[in-house]
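Consider the following assembly input.
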Amino acid sequence: MSRLLRTSRLFRPAARPGALAALAAAGALTLAACGTGSGSGGSGGAPDTLTEIDYYDAAPQNTQLPQILDECGVRNGVKIKHQQVPRAQFMPKLLQQASARSLPDLALIDNPDLQQVAATGGLVSLSKAGLSTEGLYPSIAQAGQYQGQTYGIAPGVNGLALYYNTDFFTRAGLEPPTTWAELAADAKKLTQGPRYGVAFSAVGTEEGTFQFEPFFWTARGNLKELDSPQAVKALTLWKDLVGSGSASKSVVTWTQADVNDQFMAGNAAMMVNGPWQLPTLNADKKLHFGVVPIPVPSPDAKPVTPLGGEVWTVGHSKPAREAKAVAVVKCLLSQDESAKWSKDAGYIPSNQRAAAQLASADPQLAAFVQEVGTAKARTTELGTAYPKVSQALADAIQAVLAGGTSPGSALSQAQSAAKN
Amino acid sequence: MSITVQGRQAATTAAPAPPGGRSRGPARVRWAAVAFVAPAWLYVAGFYLYPLASSIRMGFQDYTVSSFYTGVAPYVGWDNYSKVLHDGHFGETVLNTVLFTAGSLAFQFAIGLALAVFFSRRFPLGGPLRSLLLVPWLLPLVVSGTAWRWILDTDSGVLNHVLLNVHLIAHPVPWLASTHDSLTAVTLVNIWVGIPFNMVILYGGLQSIPGELYEAASLDGAGGWQRFRHITLPLLRPVTAVVLTLGLIYTVKVFDVIMILTQGGPAGSSQTLTTFAYNLSFQQLEFGRGAAVGNLLIGVAVVFAVVYLRATREQRQAGR
């Protein structure tokens, strides 16, 4: 008690403003201290623990990743503290850590977000640290770059393709569609009772934009010009699928995981989804399905899909720590680990040769590998401005599918919102 | 406890000390008082004033992603506010907030009052039934919100199933998937969440109305409606003021219900100021603008908090 009284002399009424400032400073210091607590390892020498963060919250990725991390940790004589946060909180969390100057040593960042994080200045240049992107798909190598330096490298990539239920297709005597016209016609024929012809995700976030981009880009749309006739054409395709009842009105609320659930439950004969669903889908022995590339507007067009996947980054700390983290990333990106990760988590190896080998061994992956060759990184056209345009596009898609706005006017609104 | 006693003793013994000299006693009393108040100051300063000041400051800054690392965020005056006001979604968002709040309050209050009047009569199982009505209040919103998402699903939701079977609708209503219905859907769920709060407080208010008033009124020949209109409503007025202002402050800041059901979508049709601020800050990473919207919201809440304090003060004075 007496100690309390003595310390309280500091807080004489007259001294109040100063005390407040001191308190605020103390608060800030404590916060900073909390942040760096886990980050600062041994003094100068090689650290014994590294921190890692990612947003995989579903199996099999969230069980496979810690295993691979452990392996690479053991090989480099370091313990890796694994942490996962939900996707929606990932960027805010990373920024909060950046503000405390305690970015995790290793972070697995979604490739369209890489440039934003790199722009903070908190990441170590991997090209300067001696890591090379040779042999990787040029598009993913480019997605990891900011102002000429490589800040992130992907162990595996993904894309979107069309899954179809072979049972429904054989019963209806149909072949999987290759063009938009066939897609619309097949979807209509396969819509029966509670079952819809096709399912996709048009949720109002980057996820919805990602699902729309294969159609948008294949129609030769350009993210810098959201209201082009090509973009209108692509959005009209989605509008007609929902309008004709071939796709559920609920697509605007479905995430890609929800779409996968609908497909597995037999509520959709086709779905647009990524290879990361393969482990789950294959686990269901009663489900028979095939995978084909995304249909194209005319038979001579080639599908252009967005490049998905996360890149490994190293946060700034002390030289010895950074070197250790780089060594671990090198291990994570090695051919063995990258191939293992791709296989277990449903990714395509980012190394072109490894991907080609995998495609010939696994027909399920053939469509994805074929598409990754022509895939486009989402930040190619816009760089750090991408998230804003992506949000505007997602809003336009929702306004059309859920609100009955015409594709033309929704997209011209999106274009003016993106410019703001 | 011991300190106050000591302090008092010190004060009495020190009283005859020569005037002019700084007596130790009263000073110690003052410090003791400060010591008791200090934790509250610290708490308020650390957890209310500092964040509030930061938020107000951030509203005037161009706070970008790199500001987090560099700590540099230039001041831009009212730029964030003007950008937010000119945002294509702002008008709709404000309208949504008003409709959501007004709709929730009106129905929560009306249904809560009806149930409170109903349960103030004694009947078998009245107690257990009344407790059951509290369930929406006790359940974590993440749980009930997810359940409502299933209930309101267009294709497989039980609500559409029931409505179709009793032929109230011809086609399934896309509750959460249409820009025309989503605001209604989130408001309905929020009404459901808010009814118990209104019922409990109003029920308490009803208990404090003396029964003799009703007896006297019926002797004078007043019917049920007249008794409600001329006794219940006027005597319930103080409680009503509290319920409505508190309800308003709670409803304006509702976040979880909307976030779980629609995330403010589709196409911003169920976006309110809270989800708008969240989207700006944490999805689009426009922290300055997000803070600006948050500050507007704080302003609204403060206005109604003052109204509430006024109302309760008048009530206390009237009670004296």
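The two ends of chain A are 59 Å apart (CA to CA). Ask yourself how this observation constrains the way the partners meet.
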